Every structure is written in C-alpha cells, then in structure tokens.
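Q: Is it fine to ask for two folds in a single conversation?
A: Yes, each is treated on its own. Send the first.
Q: Here.
A: Result:
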Amino acid sequence: MAEPELQLDPAIRTWVFLPIFLINFLIGVLRHYVSVLLSSQKKVDLEQVKDSQALIRARVLRENGKYLTKQAFFMRKNYFNDEDNGILKVGSRKTTAPPNPMTDPSMMTEMVKGNMTSMVPMMVVGGWINWHFSGFVTTKVPFPLTLRFKPMLQRGIELQSLDASWVSSVSWYFLNVFGLRSIYSLVLGENNAADQSRVMQEQMTMQAGGMPPDSKQAFKAEWEALEITEHNWALRNSDVEMISLVGQTPETLLYHQNRSSSIF
C-alpha cells in the first residue's frame, strides 16, 4: 500500500516560502547599494595600462596582420620587435618586480569591505532564519531524487520517512542565496554586488591568485610569438575573385585593359 501524499498547509506559502524569498532578494538589493556606497575609486597604474595596451596591439597585429600589406606588416613588426628600441624588447628587459596586492593597504581594505557586505549578512540572516523558520517543509521539487539529496535539501528536518524531493525552510534559504543570480541581473544589471556566488568566487580567485602575472614574462612570450609569425597576405588576388563573382561588365573590361597596359 502506497504511503499517503504529504499535503502542505497553504499558510506555509504565505508565511514561510514567500517571506524567505523576499528577505533574500531585499537583502541582496541592499547589499548591492551598500557595496556601491562603500566602494572607492581604484587607482590606475599608468605604466601597467601602457604595458597591457602594448601587448594587446602586438597580439592584434599577430592575429590580423594577414590583412595588411607586406611592407605595412613588417614595419609594425619592427616597431614591436626591434632588437634595440622595440616595444616588446624593451618591456622584456624590465627588472622591476610585480607589485604584491597583499601588501597594498587599499587592497586589504577592499577585501574587508567585501567580507562585511557579503559574509556577515549571510551568517546573520541565515542564523535568524534557522531559528525563526526551523522545522518547516516549504516546497517540493518536480522530479524524484535519491536519498543522497536529503542532507542538502532537508537541513533542519530529521525524518527518514520523508521523501527526498521535499525542501526544508533552511535549505530553501540557501537555494535562494545561490540561485537568484538571474533575478539580480534583471533588476540590478550584470555587474552587481548582490550575487553572493559571484562575490565568493571573486574573493577565492583573488586569494588563490596571489601575485599578479609578471609583465616581463608576458612581453617575452609575445615577442617570441610575433617573431615567428610569417606574413601571408589574405587579400592576394581579391580583385580577381570579386570580379569573377560580379561578372564581366564594361567597367571591369576597362579595368582589365588599363591594368594590362600598366603592366606592359
């Protein structure tokens, strides 16, 4: 005999399900505007910007140099790779060590602000929701799940007989914390500070990154890549191919006659 289906009180939707969603959404919006108010304008290192733009220009030349004439390509290549005064060659000789962000007071201050606006509200609100809404079953996922999902979806409810598809109030809170990215992007835009998962990912990337990449090695690698790049003009015989597609006209015949006479 099959077990009877669990029926939820409609009041749970009004007093548990929707309030948890609204609390998470409103706190995310508040966190976004607080982060905007606390954020300070980052200082731009002009030397670093100059180096990055030089690397970008060299990469663009290496990738799209086939659309330039041979003389124009080698003129630009010599500008970057000249043994004495080339931009990439001079950059590869730099002896200054890359800056360490962990010793920068402004960087440390930004990290503290990020923790204050992201981790502290999540811990406080999560503890309050765990105390105030503890023991409620809020919703059910529309597909069956295995028992491995019970610790994740039924946190705060220790019932072995309860189907794994049901979601507790505490688990519903954590699903909202990490699942409102699309709504935040729709309301606040793409680059918002309300998305908790994106903020945590940026902090982990910053901690794991440690030292920034050495510009000396980047210049050396780009110089080597540009040095072995050969020029293969992609527009060779492009006029003939275009005329073959358009067809013979009085204008094209006159063009061929003038071209032939100029050759001979």
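Q: Second one now.
A: Result:
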Amino acid sequence: MRIKDQALWARTVLQITSLETMAALAGLRRAAVGAARAPARLAAAHVPMLDQRREKHVDVPHEAFEPYKTSTTGVASAGESRRAFQYVVATGLGVTTIAAAKVIVTNFLDTMSTSADVKAMAQLEVELDTIAEGKNVVLKWQGKPLFVRHRTAQEIATAVGTDIKDLKDAVNDPADSDRTKDPKWLVLLGICTHLGCVPISHAGEYGGYFCPCHGSHYDISGRIRKGPAPFNLEIPPYKFQGDNLLVVG
C-alpha cells in the first residue's frame, strides 16, 4: 500500500473514532437530563416515590428491664451488711491476737519465774506446839540447817543479862531483843560462821551451841563468845502466824 493510501486510512479511522466518542457523550448527556427530569414527571403522574430520609420511631415498645435492676435500698443494705461483717472479722482477729499474745507472754514469764519446788523450799512452816520447852530442833530450810529453840525462863534471863561489852561480835544484832521476836523462841541458821560447820546444841562453855571442828562457842542467844568464828549465828527471816505457827522465809 502506498503512503498516500495509508494516510487516508488513518484519517478515516480517526474520524470514525471521534464520531463514536461524540455519540457516547451525547447518550450520557441525555441520560443525565432524563434522570433530573424524572421526579417532576413522576410527581405529575402521581407515581409514589421512596423517601430515603430516616424517621424517628417513638411508638416502638421497649423491653422492660425493671425486674432485673437492684433497688437502691437493697444496695445500701448490702453495703452496710458487708461493712458490718468486716468489722466483726477485724474485731475477732484483734481479740484472738491479743489472747494469743497474752498466752505467749504468760508462758514466757512462767519460764523465768521460780519453779514450784523452789517455791516450796522458799518457806518452811513449823508447828510450835511440837517443840517442848528447853528443846532445840534441827530442820532444813533451803538446803540449810535451821535451829528452832524453845528457851526456858532461866535461859531468857541469862541471854538478856549478858553485857554487850563481853561479846566478840558486838555489831551483828548483839542484843537479845534484836535476835528474837518472841523471847521464848530462838530461830537461827545452824551454820558456824567460821568454816560452815554445824554446831551442836546445848553444848559449849555458855550452854548455847558449840562447833567441835575448831572450838567455837556460842551462847544461849547464838552470839559468838569464844573461838575462831568471827560473827554471831545468822538469823533467817521469819514471822509468827497465830500462837502456834512459825513461818520461815
């Protein structure tokens, strides 16, 4: 095909394409105009149209939720009940803790206190009517020998009439009135103040007590009069309960 024929063919195709495009555009324009005029024609022909606007429906029955709701009074009472329960639990725990602490402290103090056997040894009760006048009994108090002597009137007079200047130990309760609470009863620890021996009753040069180990002589009031012992016999703590009971310790 020659060049002139090719150019003519190209112009022909271009013109056909342009005509088709113009026809398509005209069809679109007519469709748009027709769509715009359709509501007016439908209205004139009394044809009903669908309204796309949304309406508010107030006449639709709604679900009743009242049975599922808890009343305000119920909520308040439930809250008060819960708080009351918490108070009761807290109070119970507090009381239990205090009681447990008391038991622990009491048991701890009991372990530090004096045991029952030691308490039993701490005091000694002596029935005085079992000791005849002029007799001396030897008892045991806290592991130590104890002398309880029922003195006669002559022994009391001798003890009271002793001159303190004649005593070897004039410092540790030298007067007989300082060594007895009742002149008839003399209560002493039976331990020699020299080396801890146990003196013998109704012996020695003064009729009181005599330690044969090293020759210490004590008078009728337990005062050292002769020998190596430096001090008078010791007086334990004691008291009278009634007329017939002596409590030592």
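Q: Anything structural to flag on that second result?
A: Two points. The chain is about 40% helix and 15% strand. The chain has a mean pLDDT of 80.
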